[in-house]
Amino acid sequence: MGIRGPGGRGGQRLHHLLVLGTPPGGPRTGVAVVQAPGKRRLAGLRTGVQHRACSVAGPLEPHRKNRHVDRGAHALAGLYVHIPFCSHACPYCDFSFELLKGGRVDELLGALDTEAERRGRELPWADGVFDTVFLGGGTPTCLTDRQLDRVFQTIHDRFRIASHAEITVEANPETVSIPKLKRLRGLGVDRISIGVQSFSLQILLKLGRRHTADRAEKAFASARAAGFRNVNLDLMFGVPGQTAADWADTLERAVSLDPEHCSVYGLTIEPGTEYARLAEQGALDLPDEGRHTALYFQALDRLTDAGFRHYEISNLAKPGFACRHNVSCWKGGDYLGLGPSAHTRMDGRRLANARGLADYLRAMDVRGEATDMDETLSVDERIHEYILLSLRSVDGLDTRLFRDRYGDDAMDDRDPAIHALAGEGLLAKRGSRLCLTRRGLALADSVCEYLM
Fold first, then answer.
1. d(CA 126, CA 332)
2. Which phi and psi angles does 215 have, rounded to 5°?
C-alpha cells in the first residue's frame, strides 16, 4: 500500500479507501455505494459497480468545525517503493505505469536512490526503523535480477530496516521463476503477492492478462520451491461475463493451493481506461449491483470456510498472516512512499509525488525531489481519516481510543448517527468497538459518510 497517489495508477484517494475491494497494492477496484434521496432516514442505500462520491441523508451534519484535539498516536512505519513498469497494459487499470519496452528503468533506479538518500536524512525517517517494506507497481518482478538488486541496495543503504521486517513484492505469474524468486528471498523478501485474478481462461482474456491458470499455479509452486512461506493471491470479481460458477471455480482452485493470504477485489470501471471506453459504448457485460455484491459474499463465505480470517474489507488471511504493512497503514501508521505517484504520511501530513514517470524524473532532475502535493491535515480531516481507515478493518473503530485521541465531543456528536446506522443493521457495537455488519460492508462508503 504505501500509498499510490490519487488519481493515477498509483493511487488511492482517501475516499477510495473504503470502497469494497480497493486494493492497497493493485488495480483500484471495488463495490461502492450511491445514495438516493431521502429525508431524516437511511434511505436509498444500494451497492454500485463504480465509486461515486456520496452522502447519506439524515440528521447528522458534516463535522467541519476544527474544535477537536488530536492527542497523538504511535504506529509502526512502513516503506513503499513504486516500480511503474509493466510488460503490457491491462484494460481496467488506471495506475501510473509505463510499458517496459523502451522504459527508462535505470533512470528510475537512479532517481529512486536520490530520493531515498534525501528522505533518509530527513525527520522522522532519519531516526526511524522501517518495520515493513512493500514494492508495488506496475510489476516489480518484470525487472532484471541486476535491477532488483539495485532497488534493494538503495533500500538498505539509505534506511534502517528492522531485522524482523515484513518485506513484500508484487508479482505477475508470467514474470516469476524459481531462480528469480530465490533471488528475492536472498534479498530479504519474505512475502510475495501474486496477481492471479482468475483461474478461468475466458476471464483472464477479458482482463487482458498474459498468463493462464496453469501458469498461475506454476508461479505459486515456484514461490514455495524458492522458500516463500507467506504468499498472497489477488483475485478479482465482477468481471464482464463472469458467473457465480466461474468465481466458485477460481475460489476452489485458490483454496486448493493453500496460500496464507487472499485479496478479493471487485472490478471498478475507472475513467480513462479501455474498459471505461467500452462501458460508454455499452460493450461490457457487467454484473448488476446485486450480482456484484453476491460474488463478494460468495468469496468471503468460501474463504472463511477454508480457514481464512476476514480481517479487512478486501483481505483474508490464515492466522498470523495478515499483511502487516497494510494493517499499519489502516491503523494510521506513518509510511514513506518513493517513486512516481507514491504517497507519504507523516506527523499529520500527506505528501504525494508526481504521478507519471516523465514528470517524476523531470522533478527529480530539476529539484532533487518530486513532491507535488503536501498538505497538513486539520483535526477534523484526521477524524474523518481515522473513521475511514478504522471501519475498513473488520475489528472496527475503537471508541475508547477515539475518545482519548479526539475528545468526548467528537464521539458524542456522532451518537445519533451511530444509533441510526445500528437501527438499520449497518453498524454493530461489540464492546468498545463499532464494526460494520455484513450488510454494512456492502454499503461502507455511505456508512462512513454518514458518520462524518
1. 20
2. -65, -35
Q: How many CB atoms lie within 10 A of CB 319?
A: 9
* 81-83-89-93 Cα dihedral, nearest 10 degrees: 10
For residues 340 and 190, what is the distance between their CA atoms, to the nearest angstrom?
Answer: 24
Between vectors from CA 296 to CA 293 and to CA 299, what angle results, nearest 5°? 150
Residue 416: per-residue pLDDT? 95
Q: What are the C-alpha distances in Å from 54 to residues 45, 184, 236, 248, 360?
A: 10, 42, 24, 32, 32
Name the segment(s) of the chain with CATH classification 3.20.20.70. 77-329
Which residue type is seen at 172?
A: N
DSSP 8-state secondary structure symbol assigned to residue 222: H
Contact 444, 436 (CB under 8 A): yes
CA distances from 42 to 48, 413, 423 (A): 16, 18, 10
Residue 27 CB-density burial (10 A; 0-12 exposed, 13-18 middle, 19+ buried):
buried
Tell me the chain's radius of gyration from C-alpha atoms. Answer: 21
The whole-model pTM stands at 0.84
Look at residues 334, 335, 338, 337 and name the one whose alpha carbon lies nearest to residue 114: 338
Contact 159, 190 (CB under 8 A): no
The pLDDT score that the predictor gives to residue 26 is 34
H or E element, residue 161: strand 161-171
CB 307: neighbour CB atoms within 10 A? 12
CB 78 within 8 A of CB 134: yes
Helix (H, G, I), strand (E, B) or coil at 378: coil
Q: Which residues of the chain have pLDDT under 50?
A: 1-2, 5-75
What lies within 8 Å, CB to CB, of 395 at 6+ separation is 311, 433, 435
Backbone φ, ψ for residue 53 (5° rounding) = -65, 135
Residues 6+ apart with CB under 8 A from 325: 1, 2, 24, 78, 80, 132, 133, 134, 166, 168
**pLDDT tens readout for residues 120-178:** 999 889 888 999 999 998 999 999 999 999 999 999 999 999 999 999 999 999 999 99
Return the C-alpha cell found at 86: 509493466
* CA-to-CA separations, 114 to 107, 339, 345, in angstroms, rounded: 11, 10, 20
What is 77-329's CATH superfamily?
Aldolase class I (3.20.20.70)
Please state the φ and ψ torsions of residue 170, each to the nearest 5 degrees: -80, 145
Strands 231-237 and 191-197, by their bridges, are parallel
